[in-house]
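pasting for ref
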Amino acid sequence: MRTLLMQPTIWSFAASLILPCLALDSSSRPCSVTGRAVDSRTGQPLPRVEIELAALGSQARSIGQVDKPENRSTPAGHGHRHATVSDGRGEFCFSSVRSGQYVLLGRKAGFLPSPYKAVSPSQMSAIIVLKDGETAHVILKMIPQSLISGKVVDEGGDPLDSGNVQALSAVSLNGTLHYSVVKAVPVNDLGEFRIAGLGMGTFLVKFQPRETAASPDMGGVTRPDLSTLPVPTYYPNARSVTSATVVTVGSGESVLGVDIVVQRAPRYNVEGVLRTAELQPEFASVSLVPSGENLPALVVGSGVLGPGGKFRFPGVPVGEYELHFVAGLGHGVSAGRRAVRVADRD
């Protein structure tokens, strides 16, 4: 579920425009929202938190239609969204707000986008109900970001400077855990990585070589010798989801030393034909996904079918996979999957 306020733009203001209270023109008996932004771990006030107040239902407007306050005195209800910045004591105020229902979101470097009364950015903001002439007092608890850092080396201890490292989180689908990539960062020239902007939770950390981010090759090119190339590896040195070690991260915690030892293994071609009831589907595609990962976490390839429904994935590392297919037929869309094991041959 996506937070209602994840996408709206928060505007930065010059220091000279930071005021203790955002004044807005309105009709009789205006309402107001006052509060303080604090660190959810320490309770310490946070200055310069960008805060947005949005009328419930205004989220339906597209991002490009959000009204930007030009002089911090836009009438409440005119733009449905109002932005301000907390002062040196973490305090903020929206005055002359029309009665109604509102949601609140804060943003600050080093913290996750924090909805009011939420413990995760994926949660919705609690609703602030303003009746005619009322003032609501709130505490906006900002959620510190967590991070995972480490180094990627091969079995000889040499750093790998090509590819990226992914943090994956578990999602239960029909009672089975599958993992999806929540964030990915490239390694630097020393093989080091730093995945910031994470929430608290448990993650799998995976190295993804750049060479395996390939699309199906329909040209029938002869497979080169790929036996010396690194293969996707989960922390600390696992080849599959089931043998990987999870990394647990607390709120605002930095977990260091998550070093991945990458293996090298032979790679092979995976080829096949997708047959449908009709001679020619309106559209079709196939994707090869590591077993235990969700479809968005593609690492081997994805693409449309070739002539006669043929498909080809070159250079697939040894391992367990699922072949996903989608085909648009005359009576609707057909989708499914089947297990594929790559062992010692094409």
